[in-house]
Structure formats: C-alpha cells, structure tokens
Specification:
CATH class of the largest domain: Alpha Beta
Order of helices and strands: HHHHEEEHEHEHEHEEHEHHEHEEHEH
Number of strands: 13
CATH superfamily of the largest domain: Nitrogenase molybdenum iron protein domain
Shape: elongated
Number of helices: 14
Structural class: alpha/beta
Distance between the termini: 68 Å
Number of domains: 2
Helix content: 40-55%
Amino acid sequence: MALRLVEQLEAPPQMATLLRGKAQKRIEESEQAGFAGVEAACRGRPLVIGPELVELARGHVTPPQQAALESLFHIQRKVALRQYETLRPCIVDPTTGVKISQEIRPLQSVAIVAPGSWEEQVPHELGAFLTAAAIAGVPRRVALLEPDAAGGVSPVNILAASMGEATEIFRAGGVAGLVGLLSGWFGPVPEKILVAGQNRLVRAAWEILHGIRPVSGYDLLVLTDSTSGVQPVLEIFSNWLTDDPNSAVGFLTTSRRLVARMESHLAALPEPRAPWTRDMEHVPVVVRSTVEEMVAESARHRVRYLVLLVSKPESCLPRLGRADHIVVGDHAAALAARRAFAAGGVWAGDCIHPDETSGVFAFLRTQTVQKIGHKAAERLRVQLALLSKS
C-alpha cells in the first residue's frame, strides 16, 4: 500500500453532506415528537436519575471499577485545580481617574450530552467535563445520558456522572436531548452544551443546532434609574447607532418619566432628522419597578457592552455575569470608554470557539469593568475629538 505524499497539509474535509442530511432529519423528527419522544425513549423508566438510582447503579459496579473511577477523578480534579490556580484578576490604572479591572467568572450552567450505554471513553470524558465545570464554580451542571433501545443506562456512566458532581442527571440524550436542551424541556437553556463520546451523528446535529440557534445577545444595553437625564442617555444611543446602526441595542430603566421625556425630545427634533433617530424607533425599551428587577432582566442575555447609569452601581456588578464589558460612571465615561479603550470592539467572552478551550478554562468567562471619573472622561473626549478632526 502506497502512502499519499503531499507538499503541505490540506484543510480537513468538512462534515459530509450525507451526515448533515441525516442529522437535520433527526433534528426535525425530534422537534416533531417533542418532549413525549424523550419520555418514550425511557421505556417507562424514570426520566430523572436521582440519588436512589445512583446508589442502585453503584451496587452494579464492581469494587475494582469504582476504584478505577475514583483514581481517574482524583487525577482530573488535581489537573483542574492546578489550572484554576493559574487564574488571576487584573486591575489597571492606565491614567488618572480611570480604573479597569478584569475578573474571571464561571458560567451559570452547563450541560454534557453523552451516551448512556457503555463506551470506553465516555466515563473519562464525561468525568473530565463535569470535574472541570465543578472546579470552575459552575452552579448548574446537567448530564444527559442517552438510554439504549430498552431504556437502560450503563451503571458505570451513571456513577461517573454522580462522581463528577453533576447537579442533575437525566435519562435522555442524543439528538433529542440536544433539541430538548435548547427548547427548555430540561429547565433553563444552559449557557454551554458539550457532547461527549464519538457519535458523529450527534456531533453533526450539534453543529447544525449551534449555528441556527445562537444565544441571544445585545451589542449595547443601557441601564438607568430615575437619576439619569434625557440628553446624556440619547447621546449614548446617537453615538452608538451612528457608528453601528445594524447592531442590537436595548434600553432598560426604572423610570417611565424618563422614557416619556425621551419620546418628547425625539419628537421635537427639527427636520431632516439624523438617521440614528429612525433606528431608535426599533430599540426595545423595558421598564421595571426596581433596579434589582432591571438588572435581572439584563442578566437573561449575553451583552457585549453594558452601560450602568444607576446611583449605586457597585451593588449591581455581581449580578451582571453575562456582560463582557461594563462601564460605570456618567454618560461621558460611556462615550469615552468605547473609543479610548476599544471596549466596543473587543469580545472578552465568546470570542474563542468552544472547542478551542479545554479544562477549567472552557467554563469561565472574563468580564471587564471600567470605572471612569467625570474629569477623566471629559479629558479623553477632548483628545478623541482632536483625533477625529480632518
């Protein structure tokens, strides 16, 4: 047999058309069957694998197998802990009146879809994912174990999911499990979904689903309370929409009076109006009774750039884990930060493809918080204005 010699490495072939077609068909069948299809695959057995079933599975795993799993998990935890120890927060004072801090936060939820029948690599990979997520501090860790034709799940895989500290274990998986996760059949949609095992059809389905169902996100969210003024808020929107009119922009506030005054201000602008005013008509505006409710609403979405114009911003920061960049200060700070520190163009969270990170790093996000004083913001605005003059 002659080996194929080439001058240089070629790009690997992409997913085969036949495989993609099969995966797409399976996705459509799962969507049509709905949650009833997931329950039917259990063949009358419990969908949720609770502590009592874990103990029952433990009784079917031999002591040597349990010892092997424990040794394996000990190694995985040791590696994950060492990775976690390398992480450090970063605080920089680039100029007077400006403080930039970068913190590392865990994802809020993750799901691992794996075969429930015995496959040599599944306990290892399933355990590695769950262990790393637990060390990273992910509070919700879901394991989906696909049952066999009789609705059974391998005791070794059940025990591996338990030893990996999965907070929820379901007798479900495969393409139907992926569809169910994204449809909310197993609770809130996880921030990250991983596929364990070597089932090419399931991996192909996930590539398709990941492409057509991205996590909802905003390029800009402005959060204000009743202390904010009309013109400063509109200035932020006008600058952003002028630079990037096709971006996803949202506005959350606790003040209906502020919204009414913004509408009156926009209506009073002379003709011809600037293009950004037409874009403002499509900006979703959400009014909540309290700052806490407003922050909770914003936390439901990934946010590229969040401007926090409230009286006590420090109390809100811990609940804004899904925002890549947060600017704290007055409106001048928000306008200066985007240009001076490129905050509007740098992605701190999902810039890296999920498959390009491993271990603990796959379950963490970085978040940048920029605190800019009024004098520093005005100084930077003057400097930026000089640069923009032709």
